[in-house]
Amino acid sequence: MSLPESYVSIRGLSFSRGERMIFNDLSVDFPRGKVTAIMGPSGTGKTTLLRLIGGQLLPDAGELVVAGENVPQLSRTGLLEMRREKMGMLFQTGALFTDLSVFDNVAFPLRIHTKLPESMIRDLVLMKLEAVGLRGARKMMPAELSGGMARRVALARSIAMDPELIMYDEPFTGLDPVSMGMIVKLIRGLNEALGLTSLLVSHDVEESCAIADYLCVISGGKVIGFGTPQELLDSDNAEVRQFLRGEPDGPMPFHYPADDYRQELLNGVS
Ligand SMILES: Nc1ncnc2c1ncn2[C@@H]1O[C@H](COP(=O)(O)OP(=O)(O)OP(=O)(O)O)[C@@H](O)[C@H]1O
């Protein structure tokens, strides 16, 4: 498969949490201007990968090149600049500021990071809110919004600074089917309208297949499948197929790694 030029290029990435090896010599390229959904069993390190790309975590080894720059080697100022100018992130925990209106939430990054006059900030905020269909809700407070609306405001805020790369961590969680459909449409639509490179971590196979140009399946610290949704649904790899089809039986382990069960019972370990 020949891929378009990559925007994020990861080589030989290793990362551990205590004794637990999360990534072991992982290499992958995420194509520029495309939506790639990162999938895999729970606890496999999908959120961790986004945090490594965003420079919030440092790898034990390897390169994470974003727009030509190796993120772990950036100075603190360089990293902040890269995040501000190139990256937008929409994490599950990325809550809105409850004491600021919808308008002020979206204006926040522009006011903090730019010296633009208020009249220009107003135009930009209205443009971003229009893009997520909430220009009419600009005076509302976060407590007055539904979960789906709040997610869309957070999305408008994460594109306020016109990022090149946007990372979504479980953007569909807790949404009703209509709001979920809207977010799906928005992620796809914004990617095309703004020429973004989008990385999406999600457990929702159906939604991910609907919007992603590529799927990247991670398991056991490595990439076990990368391709278009159709290519992976037809994959020769039983683990990839099991995951995408949601089959309980297959090569994917049910148990989190643990010491021998019999020994633990005999030793009375708690
Ligand atoms: N702050 C932390 N300290 C120690 N271990 C952590 C921390 N955060 C995550 N982990 C561990 O790192 C591993 C990967 O976590 P991560 O959240 O990246 O997985 P995930 O694939 O996103 O999972 P899920 O799909 O369930 O959200 C897990 O085993 C988790 O227990």
UniProtKB/TrEMBL annotation:
InterPro entries documented for this protein: AAA+_ATPase (IPR003593), ABC_transporter-like_ATP-bd (IPR003439), ABC_transporter-like_CS (IPR017871), P-loop_NTPase (IPR027417)
GO molecular function: ATP binding; ATP hydrolysis activity
UniProt keyword list: ATP-binding, Nucleotide-binding, Transport
Top-level division of the source organism's lineage: Bacteria
ABC transporter domain boundaries: 8-245
Database matches in PANTHER family: INTERMEMBRANE PHOSPHOLIPID TRANSPORT SYSTEM ATP-BINDING PROTEIN MLAF, PROTEIN TRIGALACTOSYLDIACYLGLYCEROL 3, CHLOROPLASTIC
Name of protein: ATP-binding cassette domain-containing protein
The organism's taxonomic lineage, starting at the top: Bacteria, Pseudomonadati, Pseudomonadota, Gammaproteobacteria, Oceanospirillales
